[in-house]
C-alpha cells in the first residue's frame, strides 16, 4: 500500500506523464478535455478545483455514460447532461481569500499520470497577511469500481499563521436535472426524458496530524472546516463519492450506498491501490512501446489511455461517443467512429469491452429495423447518430462555420453506418472466435444488414445494381449516386451475411433454423443477395484502376488545394458550400478509407493509383481523415507518408496551436493512431489460423512492441528495425500460427518466445 504522500507523486518515467505548467485562459478548456479522467461510466474533465474561481477557471464538469436528456425545443434531441461536479474546495481567511499571485502562475502544475490513471495538480496560495499554503491534489474515477471517485488534497502551511476555513461542495446541483432529494451527503435526480434516475453520495473528512477536524454542514453536499493554521502543518482532505444511474435491475440509491460503504471500508489508499492495479492490467494488455521516437510514444500512450478509459465492459446498453466522456460535443452521440476506429483496439486488447459495445448495437437493432422500414427498405439500418435507445438522433438543422443555417441530411442519407457496424461485428468474430456472440447476436446483425443493402441496391436497365441518393464519408457532396465507399462496403456486407448463413447452417443447424425462421430468410432470398453483391456498381474504371468516388465525380472542377494551404478555416468556408460541392475537393478519406479497411480487395497497383489520385484532393475537414490516410499509406508500404499523417492526427488532441478540443478529445483519431501502429506499421492481419504480420517501421522507429489477444491467446510482439526481426511470445493460450511476410511459423506452447526474420 502506498504512503499517503506517495500517491501524490506522479510516475517518474516522463514517457508516462502529460504535464502542463501555468494557466492559459484561451487554452484551458481544451486542456480540460485532454486531462480528463474516465473509466467508461464516469468522466471528469481536468479543470482545477481549489480556489478556481479566482482565476476564471471553468468547472470541471462530470458526464455519466448513458445519462441522456432531451435538449432543445425546436428540434428536441437527446444529449448527455452535465451532472453535479463533486470537486469544489475553497480556502479563505478572515483577512481575505488567499490569492494566487499573477507572478506565481508558473507554480500551478497539472499532471496526467497515464500509467496510474490519475490527475495530479499542485499550486500555491497566499494571503496578504503572509499565509502561504501549498496545495497538492489527486483526482481519480476508479477503474476497479466504476461507480466511485476519489479526491485527495494535501494542504501544507509553508509560512504564516492565522484562522483558515476550508469550504467544500458540489457545483451544478440543479443544472439540467430534476431534483428528487438533496440531503447533507445524498442526492437523487431524474431526467424528464425516459425518467432516468441519478444518485450520488459522498463522504468527506479533514485531518490534521492524524486527528479529524469536525465539519459544519452548510447545506446539501456543502461543508466547512475551520482551524488555526501555522507553519509546518500538513492537512489531508479526503472525499469519496459514489455515483449510480437507474438501470433495468439496479436501484441507484442502493447502488451508491453499497459503493460508498465499500470505499469507506477499504480506505482511500486501498482504493487508490486497487484502481492502480486495474490500470496495470489494462496496460499489460494494451501498451504500445516505441523506441527512437518520443513523440510517437507519447501519442500512442495518450491514445491508449483514453481508449482504455472510455469503455465499460459491464454495460451492454451504452457505447462510446465521438468525444468519449471527455466533453459533450455532438451531444454525446455515437457515430460510425466507434465501430471503424475504436473496435479494433478493443477486439484485440480487451475483447470483453468490444463485446459489450457490439451488444449495444444488438440491443438497438429494433430501432435500426424501424429506420429501414421508415425509409422504405427491408432489414436494418442503424442511426447515423445514436444515443441511449438507438433511435435516429441526428439534428435536422445546424449552424455552419459560415453562420448559415443548413439542413443536416446525414440522418437519412449517410447510410454507410449500416456496413460499418457489420464490419466491426465480423472483425470481432475473426479476432475472438466468440461463437456465443455470433450465434446469439452477431449473426442477426449481419443478416439484417445484408438484407438492408440487398433491398437498397436497385437493379437498373444496365443490368447492374445501383445505390442512389446517399452521402459517403465525404460529406461535402450530398445526394450522390453510387458512392464507392458505400457500394463496396455494401457488397462486402452482403457477402459476409451470406457467409454467416452458410456457417450457421453447417455448424449450428438448429440455431440457423430458429433464426432463419424468425427472420423469414429462405434460400431464394439468399440467392437474390448473392446476385446483388455480384452486380453492384463499384465505380472501378478497369482501364485506369481508379475508383470514381461517385457517379460524375470525375467531371467536377479539379480545384488545386495547394493554392489554399494558408487558411486554417475549413475549405468549404473559404470557397463556399456550393463551389465546394461542385469540385473534386474531398472532406475526408472516402475511396482512401476503402484502401485502409479492405486491403485484400485491392492489388498493390490499384491501391497506389487511387491513393495518389485522392490524397491531394482531400482537405481533411474531419478529424477522422488523416488517420485513415495514415493507415492506408502504411499498409501500402509508404511509411514516411504514413508517419507524417500519424503526427498530424496526434496533434489534433495533443497540440496547443489550435483550440480544437474544447468539447472533448477526438476518440476516432486516437483509435486511428493505434490502428496505424498495429495494422499499419506492424502490418497485422487476422487470418483463419493465426495472425499475419508485414512489418514496415518508419524511419527513426528502432522498435515497436505491443500485446494483442487472438481467440483466447495472449501474444506479445516486438519488431526491431535494425535486423528486421520479430519476437513473438505466447503469454497464454493454445498453440497458434504466426505468418510473417507470407511464411508460416508455429508457437507451440505458452511461455515460448520465437524470433523470426521479416527479411525476404
From TrEMBL:
Active-site residues annotated for this sequence: 475
Domain Glycoside hydrolase family 65 C-terminal: 691-746
Cross-referenced InterPro entries: 6-hairpin_glycosidase_sf, 6hp_glycosidase-like_sf, Gal_mutarotase_sf_dom, GH65_N, Glyco_hydro_65_C, Glyco_hydro_65_M, Glyco_hydro_65_N, Malt_Pase/Glycosyl_Hdrlase
Gene Ontology biological process terms in this record: carbohydrate metabolic process
Binding-site residues for substrate, renumbered to this chain: 336-337, 587-588
Alphabetically ordered keywords of this record: Glycosyltransferase, Hydrolase, Plasmid, Transferase
An example molecular function term from Gene Ontology annotations: carbohydrate binding
Pfam families named among the record's database cross-references: Glyco_hydro_65C, Glyco_hydro_65m, Glyco_hydro_65N
UniProt keyword NAD, yes or no: no
Domain Glycoside hydrolase family 65 N-terminal: 22-246
Top-level division of the source organism's lineage: Bacteria
Gene3D superfamilies: 1.50.10.10, Glycoside hydrolase, family 65, N-terminal domain, Maltose phosphorylase, domain 3
Record-annotated Glycoside hydrolase family 65 central catalytic domain positions: 301-674
Record-stated family: Belongs to the glycosyl hydrolase 65 family.
Protein name: Glycoside hydrolase family 65 protein
Amino acid at each position: 500500500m502506498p504512503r499517503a504522500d506517495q500517491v501524490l507523486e506522479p510516475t517518474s518515467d516522463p514517457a508516462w506523464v502529460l504535464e502542463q505548467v501555468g494557466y492559459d485562459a484561451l487554452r484551458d478548456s481544451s486542456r480540460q478535455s485532454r486531462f480528463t479522467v474516465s473509466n467508461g461510466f464516469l468522466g471528469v474533465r481536468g479543470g482545477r478545483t481549489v480556489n478556481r474561481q479566482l482565476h476564471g477557471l471553468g468547472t470541471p464538469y462530470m458526464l455519466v455514460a448513458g445519462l441522456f436528456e432531451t435538449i432543445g425545443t425546436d428540434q428536441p434531441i437527446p444529449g448527455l447532461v452535465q451532472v453535479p461536479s463533486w470537486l469544489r474546495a475553497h480556502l479563505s481567511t478572515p483577512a481575505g481569500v488567499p490569492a494566487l499571485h499573477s507572478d506565481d502562475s508558473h507554480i500551478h502544475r497539472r499532471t496526467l499520470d497515464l500509467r496510474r490513471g490519475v490527475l495530479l495538480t499542485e499550486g500555491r496560495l497566499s494571503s496578504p497577511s503572509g499565509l502561504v499554503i501549498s496545495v497538492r491534489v489527486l483526482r481519480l474515477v476508479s477503474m476497479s469500481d466504476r461507480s466511485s471517485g476519489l479526491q485527495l488534497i494535501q494542504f501544507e502551511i509553508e509560512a504564516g499563521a492565522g484562522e483558515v476555513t476550508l469550504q467544500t461542495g458540489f457545483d451544478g446541483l440543479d443544472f439540467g436535472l430534476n431534483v428528487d432529494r438533496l440531503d447533507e451527503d445524498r442526492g437523487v435526480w431524474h431526467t424528464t426524458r425516459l425518467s432516468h434516475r441519478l444518485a450520488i453520495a459522498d463522504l468527506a473528512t479533514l485531518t490534521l496530524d492524524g486527528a479529524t477536524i469536525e465539519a459544519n454542514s452548510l447545506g446539501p453536499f456543502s461543508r466547512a472546516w475551520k482551524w488555526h493554521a501555522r507553519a509546518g502543518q500538513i492537512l489531508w482532505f479526503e472525499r469519496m463519492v459514489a455515483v449510480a444511474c437507474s438501470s433495468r435491475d439496479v436501484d441507484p440509491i442502493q447502488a451508491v450506498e453499497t459503493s460508498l460503504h465499500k470505499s469507506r471500508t477499504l480506505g482511500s489508499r486501498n482504493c487508490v491501490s486497487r484502481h492502480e492495479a486495474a490500470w496495470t492490467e489494462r496496460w499489460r494488455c494494451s501498451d504500445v512501446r516505441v523506441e527512437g521516437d518520443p513523440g510517437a510514444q507519447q501519442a500512442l500512450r495518450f491514445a491508449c489511455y483514453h481508449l482504455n478509459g472510455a469503455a465499460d465492459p459491464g454495460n451492454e446498453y451504452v457505447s462510446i461517443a465521438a468525444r468519449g466522456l471527455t466533453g459533450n460535443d455532438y451531444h454525446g452521440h455515437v457515430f460510425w467512429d466507434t465501430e471503424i476506429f475504436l473496435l479494433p483496439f478493443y477486439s484485440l486488447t480487451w475483447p470483453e469491452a468490444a463485446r459489450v459495445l457490439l451488444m449495444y448495437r444488438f440491443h438497438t437493432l429494433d430501432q435500426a429495423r424501424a429506420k429501414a422500414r421508415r425509409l422504405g427498405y427491408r432489414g436494418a439500418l442503424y442511426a447515423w447518430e445514436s444515443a441511449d435507445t438507438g433511435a435516429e438522433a441526428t439534428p435536422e438543422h445546424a449552424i455552419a462555420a459560415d453562420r448559415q443555417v443548413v439542413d443536416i441530411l446525414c440522418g437519412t442519407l449517410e447510410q454507410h453506418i449500416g456496413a460499418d457496424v457489420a464490419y466491426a461485428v465480423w472483425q470481432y468474430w475473426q479476432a475472438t472466435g466468440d461463437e456465443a456472440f455470433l450465434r446469439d447476436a452477431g449473426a442477426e446483425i449481419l443478416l439484417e444488414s445484408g438484407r438492408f443493402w440487398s433491398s437498397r441496391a436497385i437493379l437498373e436497365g444496365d443490368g447492374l445494381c445501383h445505390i442512389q441518393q446517399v452521402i459517403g464519408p465525404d460529406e461535402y457532396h450530398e445526394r450522390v449516386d453510387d458512392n464507392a465507399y458505400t457500394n463496396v462496403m455494401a457488397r462486402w456486407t452482403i457477402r459476409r451475411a451470406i457467409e454467416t448463413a452458410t456457417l450457421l447452417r453447417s455448424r449450428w443447424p438448429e440455431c440457423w433454423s430458429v433464426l432463419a425462421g424468425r427472420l423469414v430468410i429462405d434460400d431464394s432470398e439468399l440467392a437474390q443477395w448473392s446476385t446483388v453483391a455480384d452486380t453492384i456498381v463499384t465505380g472501378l474504371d478497369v482501364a485506369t484502376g481508379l475508383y470514381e468516388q461517385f457517379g460524375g465525380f470525375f467531371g467536377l472542377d479539379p480545384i488545386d488545394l495547394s493554392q489554399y494551404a494558408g487558411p486554417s478555416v475549413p475549405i468549404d468556408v473559404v470557397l463556399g458550400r456550393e463551389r465546394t460541392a461542385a469540385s473534386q475537393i474531398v472532406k475526408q478519406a472516402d475511396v482512401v478509407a476503402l484502401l485502409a479497411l479492405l486491403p485484400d480487395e485491392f492489388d498493390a497497383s490499384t491501391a497506389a493509383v487511387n491513393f495518389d489520385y485522392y490524397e491531394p484532393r482531400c482537405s481533411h475537414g474531419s478529424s477522422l481523415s488523416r488517420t485513415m490516410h495514415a493507415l492506408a499509406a502504411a499498409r501500402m508500404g509508404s511509411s514516411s507518408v504514413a508517419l507524417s499523417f500519424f503526427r498530424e492526427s496526434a496533434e489534433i488532441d495533443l497540440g496547443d496551436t489550435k483550440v480544437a478540443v474544447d468539447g472533448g478529445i477526438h476518440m476516432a483519431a486516437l483509435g486511428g493512431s493505434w490502428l496505424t501502429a498495429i495494422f499499419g506499421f506492424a502490418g497485422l492481419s487476422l487470418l483463419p489460423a493465426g495472425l499475419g504480420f508485414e512489418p514496415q517501421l518508419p524511419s527513426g522507429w528502432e522498435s515497436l512492441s505491443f500485446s494483442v489477444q487472438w481467440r483466447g491467446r495472449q501474444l506479445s510482439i516486438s519488431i526491431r528495425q535494425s535486423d528486421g526481426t520479430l519476437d513473438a511470445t505466447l503469454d497464454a493460450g493454445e498453440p497458434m500460427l504466426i505468418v510473417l511476410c507470407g511464411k508460416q511459423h508455429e508457437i507451440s506452447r505458452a511461455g515460448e518466445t520465437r524470433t523470426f526474420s521479416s527479411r525476404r
